[in-house]
Amino acid sequence: MFKVAVCDPISEKGIEILRNDKDVVVEIKSGIDKKELPKELIDSDAIITRSSTTIDKEFLGYCKNLKVIGRAGVGVDNIDLDEASKKGIVVLNMPTGNTLAATEHTMTHMLNCMRFMPNANYELKYKHTWNRKKWMGIELYEKTLGIIGMGRIGTRVAVRAMSFGADVVVYDPYIPKEKATKIGARIVDDLDELLEVSDIITIHTPKTEETYNMIGKDEIAKMKDGVILINCARGGLYNEKALYDGLKSGKIRALGIDVFENEPQPNHPLFEFDNVFVTPHLGANTYESQIRVAEGIAKSVIDALKGRGYENAVNIKMEEEEISEIGKQFLGLAERMGSFLSQYIKGFIKKVALYSHGEIGSCMNSLGLFTIVGVLKNMVDEHVNYVNAPYIAKDRGVDVETDVYDKTTEFKNYLLIKAYYDDGKTLEIGGTVFEPNKARIVYMDGFDMEIELTGNIIVFKNYDKPGVIGKVGLILGEHKINIADFRLGRKKDLGEALSFIKVDQEVSDSILKEILNIDGAILIAKVKL
User: Fold this and answer.
1) 56, 85, 162, 291: least CB-packed within 10 angstroms?
2) Who wins on pLDDT, 457 or 324?
């Protein structure tokens, strides 16, 4: 029998699923003082929690028998994942239960921004003023809706907006183009194009280094006058100071916002505008979504306890004893190589092929898993881990293949990863581990070099002629960017060179553009590992 403790209130539908399983004993602990709660869980096999229970190292110290933690929601900020992992406890969440709620909440904000219904309601109901002319609105019909991020929620918003008769334009470099086109949306390769043509823009991306403050002063300047902006995804995707300035100038007609960079947010400069509609992070707050979340987490906890599957796990205890010591070191390298590929390509990767040489060939399944985790972490708006990565890859249409490296190599163990993207384009990178524990990338698309994949890296390709690299150093120096390491590979037959420039701080896109304008520059990218 498995003891499952429910530590926070969840829908009774989820509790019914637990109680109906003959192998589960349910204990309701939601009414117990949080300070005393851990002492009640000494013999629990699993616990189900929401955001109000903090599960830290001290908490887990009491839970001697705990095998599974189920978070009835998306976030796991209240759970010490590292400590849970060290103790071999699987942590699950429920990332899809609130999809419809968040979709409809986005549509609500969008329609409010177009018709100013909260203002009209307040004026009529509380000021007893009947003023139809003041609240003249606009229609969604035949407007262009720009959607940044075509994941679960973005896709559903697109379908609903098109049912209103809107034209939908999508920007998401991490999806296959047919995902947008098959539902009748138009996908663009350049964010600027979306900004320029959209009457309304809604954002549905994860919050990453790349997307933080993704929409700022420069991006708003490129938008239509009178644009409507919506953010029901993550705080910090829109720069809030830039939003304020855009509203003040009249550039932005209306703003609908459910999330803020700092929460809770009881007072904010944006609140001074009558054309700003705000809610306190209510995207998931519907009765139906809470039922779906409760039912989903109950089923997932039972499956995990019985060893039937871990599809919604955000961590997992790896069976390291099955992999050699050198194999373990290659796992970390494989994940960083995967992350490098997705950050460098900045587009949808449809297939990843791995080729191995040496004894690491015995752990190619694990190497493939770690590689795809690295690839997906920069591509999708959900937690990616060593359990759910294969499911997410399958859902996104990303194939993973493994094979033996059949060419001669000077390395005892060698891993080559080849990414397929953009209608037949490919990119190859090779890596090895110089014992002890010195993981390096040693090859990229015909260029031989050696550099550790950590920190902030600028990848710069240029025609191999005098003065180019010196100008790169000069530009970085002018912007107070310190070079920590520099590695160069050359193709003399083609007259090309490839540089990996490791710097002490992140480099802005404007600096990258300045470097790309150097005579002889071919391409430039930045990667953070």
Assistant:
1) 56
2) 457
pLDDT band at 321 (very low <50, low <70, confident <90, very high): very low
* C-alpha distances in Å from residue 160, one per residue of 61, 170, 194, 510: 48, 14, 19, 37
Burial class of 190 by CB neighbour count within 10 A (0 to 12, 13 to 18, 19+): exposed
**What are the residue numbers of the active site?**
234, 263, 281
**Residue 376 token pair:** 């997906």
Quick one: 30 and 169 in the same domain? no
- Give the pair of three-digit tokens for residue 254: 């209306």
Write out pLDDT tens, residues 128-143.
999 999 999 999 999 9
pLDDT at 489: 93
126 in the same domain as 79: no
Model confidence at 9, in pLDDT bands (50, 70, 90)? very high
Mean pLDDT within 425-440: 89
Q: Are 38 and 49 in contact (CB under 8 A)?
A: no
Average pLDDT, the chain: 92
Contact 101, 284 (CB under 8 A): yes
pTM to 2 decimal places: 0.79
Identify the burial level of 523 via C-beta atoms within 10 angstroms of its C-beta, where 0-12 means exposed, 13-18 middle and 19 or more buried: exposed
Contact 406, 358 (CB under 8 A): no
φ/ψ (deg, to 5) at 21: -90, 125
Longest dimension (CA), the chain: 84
- Domain end among 278, 313, 342: 278
Q: Do 132 and 258 fall into the same domain? A: yes
The total domain count for the chain is: 4
Rounded to whole angstroms, how far apart are CA atoms 208 and 346? 13
Q: Which domain holds residue 13?
A: 2-97+287-305
Average pLDDT over residues 326-332: 85
Handedness of CA 245, 246, 250, 254 (dihedral sign): negative
- Let me know whether 381 and 441 are in one domain: yes
pLDDT(423) > 90: no
DSSP string, 56-82: -HHHHHH-TT--EEEESSS--TTB-HH
pLDDT at residue 144 above 50?
Answer: yes
Q: What one-letter code names the amino acid at 214?
A: M
Do the domain assignments include residue 317?
no
CA angle 240, 113, 155 (to 5 degrees): 85
One domain, residues 134 and 221:
yes
Sequence-distant contacts of 375-379: CB under 8 A, at least 24 apart? 375/338, 375/339, 375/341, 375/342, 375/349, 375/419, 376/338, 376/342, 377/339, 377/342, 378/174, 378/208, 378/210, 378/339, 378/342, 378/343, 379/174, 379/342, 379/348, 379/349
pLDDT greater at residue 209 or residue 116: 116
The answer to whether residues 330 and 338 touch, using CB atoms and an 8 Å cutoff, is: no
Here the CATH number for the domain that contains residue 461 is 3.30.70.260
- Between the CA atoms of 124, 128, 133 and 137, what dihedral angle is there, to the nearest 10 degrees? -10
Decide which of 104 and 388 is more confident.
Answer: 104
Give the pairing type, strands 496-503 and 483-491.
antiparallel
Tell whether 520 and 378 lie within a shared domain. no
Residues 215, 114 share a domain:
yes
- 113 and 262 fall within a common domain: yes
